[in-house]
Amino acid sequence: MAIHLTKESKILVQGMTGGEGMKHTRRMLAAGTNVVGGVNPRKAGRTVDFDDRPVPVFGSVAEGVDATGADVTVVFVPPASTKAAVTEAADAGIGLAVVITEGVPVHDSVAFLAHARRRGTRVIGPNCPGLISPGQSVAGIIPADITKPGRIGLVSKSGTLTYQLMYELRDIGFSTCVGIGGDPVVGTTHIDCLAAFQDDPDTDLIVLIGEIGGDAEERAAAYIRDHVTKPVVGYIAGFTAPEGRTMGHAGAIVSGSSGTARAKQQALEVAGVRVGRTPTETARQVLAVLDAGA
Fold this sequence. Notes:
The chain has 294 residues and is of the alpha/beta class. It contains 9 helices and 14 strands. It is globular.
């Protein structure tokens, strides 16, 4: 099994005919993803060939859903168009919208996430790498060739650290890796993924990657303490961040001791989570937990 994305998922790509959309659609197809169409109102009716794989272009998400039965969309559109794109997908009945776009205004994110929630559409992102169920499907920009199918579930704020942990643990493999994005407002949280991995019979261990700023990791720690019985190993980016310095991700806001890597580490450890100080140490912690349970 996997969470949110399987080999049965039928994927539309909003913005497929743009530069990033073309590049990553080709990569998704090469990984075996069932991309059933693109969406571009100005190019409706055309077909794009990806290495001899023809993919139709539809004028709207609703047309794509009607023609193909698509249940997932990956959004590669400019920030100013993202609100309209996600709203359109939700109105068309798409079950999962993966929003890769960076720089989406927060008020737009709040609006389209509320609309999607009312429509029953799960949103991953914005400003995220997407998700991958290795050996089954990729929705987004996560490389498919750096790991293999396995029994670890991974949820991460950081795209780069998602890739690094996937590579560090490539010999073990993953059920699903989800990059939720680092913006202040995102559609799918650490807690959402923890709950899904807890319920997934093919996930034996969960890796949680967070970063300084906000209280998402502290809330995840409370959820783990009360609801998660599977082992969880964590990593928090930002242990060496200088005090009072604005960091890269839009959500990485630290106030006093709140939101620091140390505070998050302590909250997770109280909940029984092993926390590594570096990605490599985190991978070693995973291997130690798996060896102890063997």
